[in-house]
Design brief:
The protein has about 190 residues and is an alpha+beta fold. The chain contains three helices and 13 strands, in the order E-E-E-E-H-H-E-E-E-E-E-E-E-E-E-H. Strands 1, 2, 3, 4, 5, 6, 8, 11 and 13 form a nine-stranded antiparallel beta sheet that branches. It has a four-stranded antiparallel beta sheet with strand order 7-12-9-10, with no helix packed on it.
Length: about 190
C-alpha cells in the first residue's frame, strides 16, 4: 500500500494498492442483498450482510485487521467502521459537493473516511475534492482499480462525483473511522 498526501495540508491522501491482489477477484452474482440508495442511481451492500466466503466479507476482515495501522497513521485510538460497497450505475453523479455525514440528521459525521475503487477505470469519474470555499478544485482522485482516497473529515472536506458520461459502472468500498480520543475530549 502506498499513501501520498495530495498537498501540504496532509489531511487528504491518495491511496494505491490498498487490497492484496487475491481480494480483487470480485463476483457480482445476483444473489447479493443489494439495497437501492434513495435519490441516486446507486446500490449499496453492507459487507457484513454477505456470506463469509464472499470477497466483500474478506475485504471487511482485511480492513478491520488494519486498525492498528490506521491508529498509528492518524495518531489516535479509533474504531474502523464496517465497510459498505457501492455500485453506481453509469448515470451516477453527486450534484454539487458534500461533507460525509452532513446530510443525515442525527448522524455523527465520521472523523475519517476511505474509498477504494474496485473495478477497472474506463473513463468513470473518481472523486473531486474542492477547496473550503467550493469555488475551485483542490484535487481529483482518479478512478483506478484498488486505488482511492483517505481523508480526515474535519468538516471542510467538500467533495463530489462528476457526471459519469461513460457506459461503465463504478464499484467501490467505503469505510469510515471514529477517533475515540477526540470524541471523549469533545464530549
Amino acid at each position: 500500500m502506498k499513501i501520498t498526501a495530495v498537498d501540504s495540508a496532509e489531511d487528504l491522501f491518495y491511496i494505491e494498492d490498498y487490497f492484496p491482489t487475491k481480494l480483487l477477484d470480485i463476483n457480482l452474482d445476483n444473489s447479493l442483498p443489494w439495497q437501492d440508495v434513495s435519490g441516486h442511481p446507486r446500490q449499496m451492500i453492507d459487507t457484513q450482510e454477505v456470506d463469509q466466503s464472499h470477497v466483500f466479507y474478506k475485504m471487511r476482515e482485511y480492513s478491520q485487521s488494519q486498525k492498528e495501522y490506521w491508529s498509528k497513521f492518524f495518531d489516535t485510538d479509533l474504531i474502523v467502521q464496517g465497510p459498505k460497497v457501492w455500485y453506481d450505475e453509469p448515470d451516477f453523479q453527486m450534484e454539487g459537493s458534500h461533507i460525509d455525514g452532513d446530510w443525515k440528521e442525527g448522524i455523527v459525521c465520521p472523523d475519517g473516511a476511505m474509498q477504494i475503487y474496485l473495478s477497472e477505470g474506463k473513463g468513470q469519474p473518481g472523486t473531486t475534492f474542492y477547496h473550503p470555499d467550493r469555488s475551485s478544485i483542490r484535487y481529483e482522485i482518479p478512478y483506478k482499480m484498488n486505488c482511492g482516497y483517505l481523508m480526515r473529515n474535519h468538516l471542510k472536506q467538500w467533495h463530489g462525483v462528476k457526471h459519469n458520461t461513460t457506459n461503465e459502472k463504478r464499484l467501490s468500498l467505503y469505510l469510515s473511522f471514529e477517533f475515540i480520543n477526540q470524541r471523549l475530549s469533545t464530549g
